[in-house]
Design goal:
The protein is α/β, with parallel strands linked by helices and about 375 residues long. Helix content is about 60%, strand content about 10%.
């Protein structure tokens, strides 16, 4: 199959050519030997067409989908996702501190302003973060506030009055290479659109919309149903590295051939592509560690819930036992009172019997006969 791919992309080199070049440069050889055998083979498979290069790796994505150099590609992708014509006005800087420590799981994060002044945040996550909805809502709110401040300040500087009607939609689009469990409840859906709507039909613009795309689920659907439309062609380009599927894609949608040509031209720069691959491996290591941390944290949280539940149950049982103990104490005190009362009654009866005995003796001594 690699030979078939080479017919379309004659710039693809053989393993021998690449290994010879690596062996001739000390720095490259040391870097190559620092990889595991599996990593070495994966790298060679990428560069020789045995499997496609991962388009969603940060460096490759920037090469073929740079919105500054290739705006038409990003525009078409976003137009298909958002189901409306998209024209990029400018690429906005990521000057917000919102990403912070989470950057390790983010492959790509892009913020663009569209022609109508609305904002789109396009993000690719290698491994989906926990609480995807809450996280996306916070980032959307961050961008909305950023737009509000920018427009307000611009109006003030121009001596104009600010109006909330000037604020445009904020779209948050997230693609997941490995999605979280929520998405796998819908194994036949790879696009999830979210917007805020009234339960009465009242229409008010609340500005924030979201699109979640689990690529792992898409690939499962692709295996069964094939490429059915232009959007699926784009998602295939972004997520699939099997040569058979690549050949099918460029046959049905020739426009993607140019993107692969750029990728395989990039692969001819062995030093650059090895550096990119090395950085990707480091990111994957960090991703794995972060994923493990998240998984462990989830496990800890679940155990905490169990412990909390058990603690509440123990507390409930303790309170019940306390109630039973208090009840038994009251019953014991009542029995003690009854015992004391019986003792007093017994004593009283005994005294009365003694009094009767004395009276009988008195009567007998007086010669009075009792019938």
């Amino acid at each position: 199959m690699a030979e078939e791919l080479k017919k379309y992309f004659p710039m693809i080199r053989t393993r021998e050519e690449i290994c010879t070049e690596i062996g001739q440069k000390k720095e490259l050889l040391e870097l190559y030997r620092g990889w595991t055998e599996e990593q070495q083979n994966t790298f060679l498979d990428y560069c020789t067409g045995q499997r496609g290069v991962r388009v969603l790796s940060d460096s490759v994505f920037k090469e073929v989908l740079d919105p500054l150099r290739r705006p038409e590609r990003v525009e078409e992708l976003l137009s298909l996702i958002l189901k409306q014509k998209v024209k990029i006005l400018q690429v906005l800087p990521l000057d917000s501190p919102r990403i912070g420590d989470e950057q390790s799981l983010v492959v790509m994060d892009l913020v663009v302003e569209l022609e109508d002044k609305s904002i789109v945040n396009l993000e690719v996550q290698r491994i989906g973060y926990q609480f995807p909805g809450e996280r996306a809502a916070c980032y959307s709110a961050d961008l909305l506030l950023r737009q509000y401040r920018s427009l307000r300040d611009a109006r003030r500087e121009a001596g104009k009055k600010f109006s909330y009607r000037d604020i445009k939609n904020v779209y948050t689009v997230i693609l997941y290479e490995k999605s979280t469990s929520e998405f796998h409840q819908f194994p036949d859906k790879y696009m999830h659109y979210f917007g805020q709507k009234s339960d009465t039909g009242l229409k008010i613009s609340l500005l924030q919309e979201y699109v979640f795309i689990p690529l792992d689920i898409f690939k499962n659907i692709l295996q069964n149903k094939g490429i059915r439309n232009k959007l699926e062609a784009w998602l295939t380009f972004l997520s699939v590295d099997e040569p058979e599927t690549i050949l099918k894609l460029i046959t049905e949608y020739p426009q993607f051939k140019r993107g692969y040509e750029e990728i395989y031209e990039l692969c001819r720069n062995t030093e650059k592509v090895m550096e990119m691959y090395s950085k990707e491996l480091q990111e994957m290591d960090r991703n794995t560690v972060q994923y493990m941390i998240d998984e462990m944290q989830d496990e800890i949280n679940e155990k905490d819930k169990v412990i909390q539940k058990q603690s509440e149950e123990i507390q409930k049982q303790s309170e019940e036992m306390q109630k039973q103990s208090e009840k038994m104490q009251r019953q014991s005190e009542e029995m003690q009172k009854q015992s004391e009362e019986m003792h007093r009654q017994g004593k009283k009866i005994q005294n009365q019997e003694e009094e009767i005995r004395k009276l009988r003796e008195l009567l007998r001594s007086s010669g009075i006969s009792l019938q």
